[in-house]
Amino acid sequence: IRQLLAAKTPAARYLAHCGVMLTTSGGIRQSVMTKKLQASHPDIANWLHEERDRAEMLQAKLAGISTLAASRALLILADAVIGQYQRLKALRGLLDYDDLIARARGLLTRSEDAAWVLYKLDGGIDHILVDEAQDTSRAQWDIVQYLAEDMLAGQSARTAQARATFAVGDEKQSIFSFQGADPAMFAEMRDFFERRARDAGRAWQRVPLERSYRSAPEILAAVDMVFSAPRVAAALSADGVPPRHEAVRPVCGRVEIWPTVEPDEDDKPDPWTVPLDYVGPGDPKMKLARTIAIEIDSWLQTGRRIESLGRPIRPGDIMILVRRRNAFVDAVVRELKQRAVPVAGVDRMRLTDQIVVQDLIALARFVLLPEDDLSLAALIKSPIIGLGEDDLFSIAHDRKTSLWRSLQNRASGDQRFEQARQWLSRWLAMADQMPPHTFFANVLAEDGLRRRIIRRLGPESEDPIAEFLNAALEFEHDHLATMEGFLAWLVRAEGEIKRDMDHGRDEVRVMTVHGAKGLEAKVVILPDTCQTPGEGSGVRLLDLKIPGSDDIGELALPVWPRRGAADLIDALNERREERRADTQAEYLRLLYVAMTRARDWLIVTGYETTRKRPDDCWYSLVWQGLEDRLVKEMSPEGAVRWRFDHPKVPGATTDDQPTGPKVESSVSELPNWALEPLEGAPAVKERIAPSRALPYG
User: Which of 145, 200, 243, 346 is most buried, by CB atoms within 10 Å?
Assistant: First the structure.
């Protein structure tokens, strides 16, 4: 306080004021005086409380100023980037996906010819079908509204013909908010179209989709119980009514909860000797991946049967669904491949992030420039050459020339160095004569190199190698086949390899819940269930709603709150809480999608962290919903399991058994003329076109 009273400049007074009123973390002190001093000096206590309130107001103003400055700088930068992006698209005559939506919407709303466009469209559209309506954005719904306007007006250019608007979707499965999907729009548009149809005297039907042709009764009953709590059901739909499912398949399914895997307390790697992203064998992700791989391998080896199918489990019956791609995904693929379990690999892969691809890129850089010491050093330590740290040190230490020249000089005294020199010399000669794909295919094929790489990096390296060769082939198809061009194209693209997991091959599938949308599997394992979505790192923008002009309506202004600003500014705090609620609601809808991918057998497990498991994570929610009906059992492998006890469906059968008497077809045999080849078919009249110099044939 003396420093505050003695301060001469505004800056000094501010710093002294902060020292009294703020905590070291920048928050407002709850108490600035002890109770004893407050009782003996009430006048000073009142003054300090007033100063504390003034400090809180000042902090909010400063947070607003810093947020304004940061948001302004970000918007200036974004405007420059977006402007350049728009100019490049215009220069190349391209439109992106958002452009297609915005241009179509503008054509139907703000263009001078909107009325004429709508009139022409009304004359050619009989029916509007909106599929996956729960994932439709607000801008897309606007287009549907304008297209259906005349249909719902009670009269149109073709009033005599039957016309309809049909939308099918499930708001419980709206999980693509990052693409602009707004689940609230589903209910809003449903009510809008129903109101307009009834006002126009047209028929309207709501058809609830409660019958499931996929999942067994036990799985659907488990889903209903997990989402029966009001706070959980509120995330699924606008009306907050808990779901109710009816199973069509009268079969016996199974729902199991496995114990979570906890981290080993003594598994703390030395930070001085291991990489920062090191994941040891005692990490719960690694332990759970090992457990799942051992269990699946045991099913396949012992012929474990799916009760509803009446046959042993096959690899293609199994799908492992995760919420996000992390170390667990790579670990479970690796563990499965080590046990020779057929696995399709991950559903998405960033090629340049794979270690084996980075080694092949180092080889490409070396053959382009042998004096590139860093690339050669990485190549020497890689499985491609196979030398170690000490070998690299002996080659590199105290050299007077390039690393490549040093290796050549030392090759005569060491057989391993001589072998490395021969390989590298041969590859240098090959690179001058072969296109990229041929070069790498030959390099990987000679001297068992591919086997050495897989032996060193594991079976999971096979997929990146195959995708790398595919990328080289793709590059040669569209570009001049040079090594330098291929390397620049590959590194610059940084594209993801997306695989089609609905391929029908007999392999275990490991994929995200988002990627599994629309797919199913007889056995579904959910291992990523013990963490909730957090704020994450990096820049997080908040959209503040501000009024716009009459033709535009409400606008969303992106704001970049500085540290602590959302705690001090009410508008930002309200928007942050809304976003947290939206994120949690989508997190619960993601659980619904994950559980309903299972056809016959659903398994829920998870891996813990050093923190307490949240009460609103997937694992806790499933346990809370099914707790009263869980029966503790021992698996055939001797592990503890909890099985969801659900009454058997009367007359339940396996899928490969008939469910009733065979129904004879009422269709008679085809007439003879339907089996005979067509005779005297009229010849197709050839049309004359200026670009066709010669007739067909």
Answer: 346
Measuring CA to CA, which residue among 55, 43, 62 is closest to residue 13? 55
Transcribe 271-293 into DSSP letters.
TTTS-TT---TTSHHHHHHHHHH
- Which 8-state DSSP code applies to residue 683? P
pLDDT for position 202: 81
**692 with 682: CB under 8 angstroms?**
no
130 beta partners: 167
Strands (E) located in 275-379: 305-306, 311-312, 318-322, 343-346, 348-350
What is the pLDDT, as a whole number, of residue 26? Answer: 65
CATH 1.10.486.10 given to domain 350-498: yes
The tokens describing 607, both together, are: 């891996």
151 vs 146: CA distance, rounded Å = 10
When pLDDT is averaged across residues 104-121 and rounded to a whole number, the result is 78
Q: How confident is the model at residue 656 (pLDDT cuts 50, 70, 90)?
A: very low
pLDDT of residue 661: 44
> Is a pLDDT exceeding 80 seen at residue 261?
yes
Strand 254-257 with 343-346, pairing = unpaired
Average pLDDT of the residues in 149-171: 71
Cα–Cα distance for residue pair 557/570, rounded to 1 Å: 16
Mean pLDDT of 648-674: 54
- Kindly compute the dihedral angle of the four CA atoms of residues 395, 436, 344, 638, in this order, to the nearest 10 degrees: -10
Contact in structure between 96 and 89 (CB atoms under 8 Å)? yes
Question: How confident is the model at residue 662, as a pLDDT?
Answer: 40
Neighbours of 259 (CB within 10 A): 12
DSSP annotation of 307 = T
Backbone angles phi, psi at 4, to 5 degrees: -65, -45
Superfamily of domain 97-209 in CATH is: P-loop containing nucleotide triphosphate hydrolases (3.40.50.300)
Query: Which amino acid is it at 519?
Result: L
User: Read out DSSP for 368-394?
Assistant: H-TT-HHHHHHHHHSTTT---HHHHHH
331-360 tens-digit pLDDT:
898 899 889 898 886 667 788 888 899 999
d(C-alpha 367, C-alpha 479), whole Å: 20
Q: At what angle do helices 415-431 and 403-410 cross, to 10 degrees?
A: 130
Question: What is the Cα–Cα distance from 19 to 4, expressed in whole angstroms?
Answer: 9
* pLDDT for the residue numbered 410: 87
DSSP secondary structure, 140-153, as one string = HHHHHHHHHTTGGG
Residue the block writes with tokens 């392999």: 507
Helix, strand or coil, per DSSP, at residue 175: coil
Q: For 646-667, what is the mean pLDDT?
A: 54
User: Which residue spans of the chain are classified as CATH 3.40.50.300?
Assistant: 97-209
Domain with CATH 1.10.486.10 in the chain: 350-498
Q: How many helices (H) and strands (E) does the chain have?
A: 24, 18
CATH assignment of 254-347+505-536+597-644, among 3.30.460, 3.30.70, 3.40.50, 1.10.20 = 3.40.50
Q: What is the DSSP string of 103-143?
A: HHHHHHHTSTTHHHHHHHHHTT--EEEESSGGG-BHHHHHH
Q: Which residues contact 580 (CB under 8 A, 6 or more apart)?
A: none
For the chain, the distance separating the N- and C-terminal CA atoms, rounded to the nearest angstrom, is 100
pLDDT tens readout for residues 376-434: 999 999 999 989 889 999 999 988 899 999 999 888 878 899 999 999 999 999 998 89
**pLDDT above 80: residue 625:** yes
Supply φ then ψ for residue 105, to 5 degrees: -65, -45
Q: Is residue 177 a contact partner of residue 582, using CB atoms and an 8 Å limit?
A: yes
Least confident of 284-298, 457-471, 639-653: 639-653
Q: How many CA atoms lie within 13 A of 645 on its CB side?
A: 8
Instruction: Write the CA distances from 670 to 663, 665, 666, 673, 675, integer angstroms.
Output: 19, 13, 12, 8, 8
